[in-house]
Specification:
heterodimer, A: mainly alpha, Ferritin, 10 helices, B: alpha/beta, GMP Synthetase, Chain A, domain 3, 2 domains, four-stranded mixed sheet, three-stranded mixed sheet, 9 strands, about 25% strand
Chain lengths: ~250, ~170
């Protein structure tokens, strides 16, 4: 059971870390200064959340594991993040849509996780929730602003949906370790938050004048370590320093 | 070695009040409300703190400052423990802290009930300008120079200012 729990914690950590890393690519490239700062602030929150999860996983793993060895020294197949978080930033609209889809998911997940039986996971969820709620409100407003904005912004949002929607199915497909943790009472059953996620997504899309795609073939695998091509490039950048100069410190 | 059995928590809190938040040096860690408890067991002094934001880089600096200060005071074993729950809220900031923030030029957090909800395009919080006290202000950005702040501008005196957002 312990290994399943560790895998579940790593899955939550990897989602936050990889999305934080992706968002941080906007640093210095945002469309306006305020939104550049917004993206890096959200990254900081996500990386902070990832650190809490990694520290907890490391304490269960023992044998010299630390938050740093987990982030910097695991291989691609050992990362358990969803495919959605590793996708290209694309344009501003695509980044915002990805943020909205994930923030919506994290908000529901952390809300539920607060009352589950693992006290440390519940505490991390409680701590992260206020930050995620802020991200959700901000990204929802941007999806609406762009979807209901100019003809060009609307078309770009349609393209973003076309690119990203196929990765949303995985959010609600439990991995084997997750199912085991759900039975044990430590993980959130994804079936219990799916309806609410769809409802909220539908609400925001409808206000944005954007369609919710139907009958789309969904790509999965990330949670089991089978990633898209993007993942290798992310890790190459994220892990380069520690791989090239082992144990280098600031 | 003298073993201190009955430590005076108040005295230690008074010392900790000299440790500033490196990112908002107007505030001490006591003003911020992040010191949750102090315990003394078997020669070890434990300070329990809680982070403001999960990614706040100031937290590592603060932990180190606590250890350095208490070691300088003569405590041989000092442990700083971070707890996450209950999650920190700006409600824990002291009134003294809010006063210091304003004097420093940062608008202190409003009482909690004003925001912290999911409503979209909600009207901006009414934030008082720390310079001229006007409530005629507008939000420039939901995010600011650190995780805990948003950017505002006063429509009367025209000064831009940081708002320590309610959390």
């Amino acid at each position: 059971m312990k290994q399943e729990l560790i895998n579940y914690i790593l899955h939550l950590a990897d989602n936050a870390l990889i999305l934080g890393q992706r968002n941080a690519e906007w640093c210095g490239h945002g469309p306006v200064l305020e939104q550049d700062i917004a993206m890096t602030n959200i990254s900081l929150d996500l990386i902070g959340q990832a650190r809490n999860f990694y520290q907890y996983a490391a304490s269960l793993l023992g044998e010299g594991a630390t938050e740093d060895t987990l982030a910097y020294l695991r291989t691609e197949r050992e990362f358990r993040n969803c495919l959605l978080v590793e996708q290209h930033n694309g344009d501003w609209g695509q980044t915002l849509l990805r943020q909205f889809l994930i923030s919506n998911f994290q908000q529901l997940l952390y809300t539920a996780l607060q009352t589950h039986k693992d006290r440390q996971l519940a505490a991390i969820a409680e701590k992260s929730l206020k930050e995620v709620t802020y991200h959700l409100r901000w990204s929802s407003e941007w999806v609406i602003r762009l979807g209901d904005g100019t003809r060009e912004s609307h078309e770009r949002m349609l393209k973003a949906i076309d690119t990203l929607w196929r990765y949303t199915g995985e959010l609600f497909e439990p991995a084997a370790y997750e199912t085991a943790c759900v039975q044990d009472g430590t993980a959130v059953s994804l079936a219990t938050i799916k309806d609410e996620w769809q409802h909220k997504t539908g609400e925001v899309f409808s206000e944005a004048g954007l369609p919710v795609p139907e009958n789309i073939f969904m790509l999965t695998g990330g949670k089991m370590g089978k990633h898209t091509e993007q993942m290798g490039y992310i890790l190459a950048e994220l892990q380069y320093l520690q791989r090239a100069y082992p144990n280098a410190q600031w | 070695m003298t073993v201190v059995h009955d430590i005076d928590k108040k005295m230690i809190y008074a010392y900790l009040d000299n440790i500033k938040d490196p990112e908002v040096p107007a505030l001490s860690i006591i003003d911020l409300g992040i010191v949750k408890d102090i315990q003394y067991k078997e020669d070890e002094l434990e300070v329990i703190i809680t982070p403001t934001y999960t990614g706040c880089p100031a937290m590592d600096v603060i932990s180190t400052s606590i250890r350095v200060m208490l070691s300088t005071l003569g405590f041989r074993k000092v442990k700083v423990t971070t707890v996450l729950s209950p999650a920190w809220t700006t409600d824990w900031m002291t009134e003294e802290g809010k006063r210091k923030l304003k004097a420093y030029g940062i608008a202190p957090p409003n009482p909690r009930q004003q925001v912290c909800n999911n409503k979209l395009f909600a009207p901006n919080e009414s934030v008082q300008c720390p310079h001229c006290d006007s409530y005629h202000t507008r939000r420039i950005s939901e995010f600011g120079s650190t995780a805990c702040k948003a950017l505002y501008q006063c429509e009367d005196c025209k000064e831009p200012f940081d708002y320590f957002k309610c959390h």
